[in-house]
Design goal:
This protein is an all-alpha fold and 157 residues long. It is 73% helix and 0% strand.
Length: 157
């Protein structure tokens, strides 16, 4: 049951992270739409002017990839908890979020380095924003898991 709970929590965390990035994209008018960026890069559909692809299949592939990665990181969280690393708490969620954000930042940076035609975005801003987005992911993933599993201690420690 823990595995199902953590998968559902990972989906919730990924949804919150995606919403955070999309709201930030609309508020700042910067490219932060992680699903479109990921789908464009995975399908090699960067437009001639460096813009993201608007194709439906790009969004589908980006969504599947993004939520799969979120589920994977949630399972990693469960493996860490089961091995005695960290607790399901607000404070630990922030630590995991920072670590997850740094890993995500380096993974995206590497993807942009090796991709033959990455989209033209402000990469430094995008990467820094991803660290904060992963804080949202980790917090919501931890909290959703807490609500689903109802442990014997309080989350807000």
């Amino acid at each position: 049951m823990k595995f199902l709970h953590v998968l559902l929590a990972g989906i919730a965390g990924t949804a919150a992270m995606t919403a955070f990035l999309y709201l930030l994209s609309y508020a700042t008018h910067r490219v932060m739409k992680v699903i479109k960026v990921l789908g464009t890069m995975l399908l090699f559909r960067t437009q001639p002017d460096g813009a993201l692809s608007d194709a439906f299949s790009t969004k589908v592939i980006g969504t599947i990839a993004h939520y799969s990665i979120g589920a994977f990181f949630a399972v990693v969280y469960l493996a860490l908890w089961d091995s005695g690393v960290g607790l399901v708490s607000a404070s630990w969620s922030l630590l995991f979020g920072v670590a997850n954000g740094v890993v995500g930042m380096f993974a995206w940076y590497t993807l942009f380095l090796v991709h033959p035609k990455p989209p033209l975005i402000k990469l430094k801003t995008y990467l820094i924003t991803l660290v904060f987005a992963h804080l949202v992911f980790a917090f919501i993933t931890f909290y959703a898991y807490y609500l689903l599993s109802e442990p014997d201690y309080t989350f807000w420690q």
